[in-house]
Amino acid sequence: MPADQTQQSATGIHFRTCPLCEATCGLAIEVEGDRVVRVRGDAQDPFSRGFICPKGSTLGELHHDPDRLRGPLVRRDGRLEEATWDEAFAAIEAGLGAVFEEHGRTSLALLLGNPVTHHLAPALYVGPLVRACATPNFFTASTVDQMPQHLVSGLLWGDSNVFPIPDIDRTDHLLMLGANPLVSNGSLMTAPDFPGRLKELPRRGGRLVVVDPRRSETAARADEHIFIKPGTDVFWLAALVQTLFAEGLVSLGRFEPFVAGLDEIRESVADFTPERVAPICGVDVETTRREARALAGAAAAAVYGRVGSHTVEFGTATAWMTAVLNLLTGNFDRSGGVMTSSPITSRIDDGEPGGGGYRIGRWKSRVNGHPEVNGEFPAASLAEEMETPGKGQIRAAITVATNPVRSYPNSERLDRAFAHLDFHVAFDIYVNETTRHADVILPAPSTLEEEAYELTFMVNAIRSFAKYAKPVFEREGPSEADLFARLVLVLRGEGATADPEILHDELVEEAVGALLDPARDAPGDLDRDEIMRALEALSPVEKLLDLKLRTGWQGDLFGRRSGGVSLAKLAEHPHGVDFGPMVERFPARLKTESGKFELAPQVLVEDWARVHSRLEAPLASDGLLLIGRRHLRSNNTWMHNIETLVSGRSRCTLLIHPGDAERLGLAKGAFCEVRSRVGSLRVEVETSEAMMPGVVSLPHGWGHDVAGLRMEVAARHAGVASNLLTDDGVIDRASGNAVLNGIPVEVVALA
Ligand SMILES: Nc1nc2c(c(=O)[nH]1)N[C@H]1C(S)=C(S)[C@@H](COP(=O)(O)OP(=O)(O)OC[C@H]3O[C@@H](n4cnc5c(=O)[nH]c(N)nc54)[C@H](O)[C@@H]3O)O[C@H]1N2
Ligand SMILES: Nc1nc2c(c(=O)[nH]1)N[C@H]1C(S)=C(S)[C@@H](COP(=O)(O)OP(=O)(O)OC[C@H]3O[C@@H](n4cnc5c(=O)[nH]c(N)nc54)[C@H](O)[C@@H]3O)O[C@H]1N2
Ligand code: SF4
Ligand SMILES: [Mo]
Fold first, then answer.
1. In this model, does residue 4 exceed pLDDT 80?
2. Are both 195 and 323 inside the same structural domain?
3. What's the pLDDT at 631?
4. Are 55 and 639 in contact (CB under 8 A)?
5. Above 50 in pLDDT, residue 523?
6. Statement to judge: residues 599 and 682 lie in one domain
7. CATH assignment at residue 741
8. Residue 670 lies in a domain
9. Which residues have C-beta atoms less than 6 Å from ligand 1?
10. Where in the sequence is the domain holding 675, given as residue range(s)?
């Protein structure tokens, strides 16, 4: 059947990128009339090669889900009721206006969630929204996730958004900590078909070593699995670095002239011998030395740490040691090591190394004085900012595609804080644990009613890839870009009825202006009127995207570069276009003031004192430590209203080693109570040899058993909210990241 991308009838097969996770799989969506009848992996997608996971195949069910909101809801007499779009924006204008008048702009908080990064319109319009909010109270999922990596990237090479991506298709040795890509399908590593790529690794003679307190699905497939006590990766990585120095294995390769701070690193890790860290980490001395030698000896090796090694008390120090290991073994920016991506929507900087550097703490949070990092405050500090009276207390919130009442630590406290807000606008497709508190809910259209281009995650991709798709279905309501524009215009005081075109036009003018700015080294002899004419027939998001594509490093420069890319060109390739693997980009990508890799920046050296004092005085380790886990059929706090994904046995169980279970009198299938400093919950026990003794695991994102939700399926498969247990009183101090793994808990059998 030929691809039919016309709007008259959607019948046919539509090819587009899955927007549900970072893997960016190509989907083939079969439509009959207004129904999605089947979703398969697109075998002709050169990047994902036909791979699909169970979540992607339910995109049709998500589209047809009767609980997915089709129009706005406005709170009237305490109840969320259906309203028109105009009524919703009028309510926002009145509600926010009243709060601003009484308490000023700093009483507003803006919160962004995960899906913001997966959809085209939010990716393009979120910047203007942040500016229009004009408040320091800015929170995103980054501080319950990867903020340590942003900070380390910013400080070591001067760009907080340049991530070291393991080059898994070419590596000989991959050391992975705190990640389970066989289930998560990868994070800060866009590599669709991770299982397939993993199968190819041993065929090349490569090795995979997984470090994890649970023998995860990925660990079970690895050449070696090393158990480690939760929260202690930093000690073990420091011992690897110490071993490199002690055994003369440091080899900086081509970056020898571009590295500062080597002596400080040697000093910092000097006390972290394999012997010293062994009882802290639970890893024996020989394993540690062997791994250090393996990293140094491999033709190309990559060290990669993710959620389990970032969402811990020493998350930043862990990310630091990870980067240091890659640099000291000559594996940074080397084929088969860790490299950086080059999205075709950006230009390539091939100038001299050096730039403005990276700063944090330009402003501080009100209650506890947390420094901003990447312009954000810690998610774990949101509740205190909402509860603590005084000037600047958060009294209103705009939440965009986020469910903090389930994804941030200490859920119960945050739930109460949200209930007390004066005004709350939620941009979401469901009435869930967070949005049930909202005064206005603005639902985005179905993702199948929007243009699709993976903009954000190409920054983490192991290959440069591009795919563009028109909407599958005609929209029922306003576009997502229109909704963002109207919200921005309300916030700017231009009124609830202001025409969204005002902002659309402004953004295009701004983007073109930046392109033509002689100070910014404009590409070619571009002409404003010519550009505007070329964009004329496109939708607002298409205009902004086409501008990026045509002036990016593969762009056609509006006809000045033959064979170059434009949106129209991409549209001729419905399966997407591959632009090759990652290539060496350093030292030109160094944006530190010194033009060098700053191995030992002051912020990190100061933070290291916390780690060192824990080496001197390790915590007592007789209690249980709680970690998280993900499941292929769940997506953070949502996708639980899709029957196909939640049917069958409950996956929201407490995994515990049989030895621990016996000691505590817990039988498989029985219920237990789990208590932490901040809360408690009751959950079913599941014994598992895959757990390290002393460690228990609970998935996050569940707990749909509260009043006021409109998610019929999810309510029947409620599960429990693991963030009732995570402690907002402990954070990774350098980055502000939340601590979601390694939580001290007590587990008690229930009669
Ligand atoms: N204990 C524990 N907590 C964790 C984690 C953990 O491992 N353990 N993981 C953390 C991580 S890595 C992350 S990224 C965060 C995620 O934190 P969040 O971003 O808060 O969580 P999500 O469940 O991804 O929230 C998605 C929200 O977007 C809505 N949504 C879905 N599609 C759309 C759409 O098209 N438009 C709009 N406007 N809304 C939409 C959903 O209904 C949902 O409310 O959670 C963190 N929390
Ligand atoms: N199916 C599915 N896919 C997803 C998501 C989802 O919810 N479901 N969420 C998406 C999001 S937002 C993200 S950020 C990514 C995350 O993707 P990953 O980074 O792969 O995260 P997880 O799957 O949570 O795996 C974390 C691993 O860390 C281990 N761990 C816990 N504590 C420690 C520790 O102290 N040290 C070490 N070494 N390991 C530890 C856990 O046992 C677990 O196996 O997944 C994305 N993909
Ligand atoms: S792995 Fe991620 S991108 Fe691929 S189909 Fe599943 S949810 Fe979609
Ligand atoms: Mo995440």
1. no
2. yes
3. 97
4. yes
5. yes
6. no
7. 2.40.40.20
8. yes
9. 113-115, 119, 141, 144-145, 307, 401-404, 407, 427-430, 432, 444, 447, 628, 636-638, 700-701, 722-723, 726, 740
10. 620-749
The reply to whether the predicted model has a pTM over 0.85 is yes
> What is the arrangement of strands in the sheet containing 26-32, beginning at the earlier edge strand?
12-17, 26-32, 35-41
Residues 604 and 691 in one domain: no
Q: How far is the CA of 251 from the centre of ligand 4 (A)?
A: 33
Q: Residue 5: how many CB atoms within 10 A of its CB?
A: 17
**For residue range 553-580, what is the model confidence (pLDDT) as tens digits?**
999 999 999 999 999 999 999 999 999 9
Q: What is the torsional sign of CA 402, 403, 407, 410?
A: positive
Q: Is the peptide bond before 195 cis (omega within 30 degrees of 0)?
A: no
Q: What is the pLDDT of residues 281-312, one digit of tens each?
A: 999 999 999 999 999 999 999 999 999 999 99
Q: What single-letter amino acid sits at 279?
A: P
Q: Output the domain CATH number for residue 325.
A: 3.40.228.10
Overall domain count for the chain: 2
Residue 483 in any domain: the answer is: no
Residue among 16, 20, 194 to mutate when testing ligand 3 (max atoms within 8 A of CB): 20
- What does the pLDDT look like over 385-419, one tens digit per residue? 999 999 999 999 999 999 999 999 999 999 999 99
Contacts of residue 434, Cβ cutoff 8 Å, sequence gap at least 6: 399, 402, 403, 404, 405, 406, 418, 426, 428
User: Both 665 and 606 in a single domain?
Assistant: no
Q: Could you tell me the two tokens for 184? A: 């998560």
Ligand 2 pocket test target in 183, 233, 460, 645 with most atoms within 8 Å of CB = 183
**HEC-encoded secondary structure of 482-517:** HHHHHHHHHHCCCCCCCCCHHHHHHHHHHHHHHHHC
CA atoms within 13 A on the CB side of 411: 26
Asked whether residue 207 falls in the same domain as residue 308, the answer is yes
Q: Is residue 142 part of a domain?
A: no
Does 706 lie in the same domain as 656? yes
Residue closest to 310 by CA, chosen among 146, 425, 555: 146
- Residue 677: pLDDT above 90? yes
Q: Is residue 647 part of a domain?
A: yes
Dihedral (CA of 194, 197, 203, 209) sign:
negative
Q: What is the pLDDT of residue 7?
A: 47
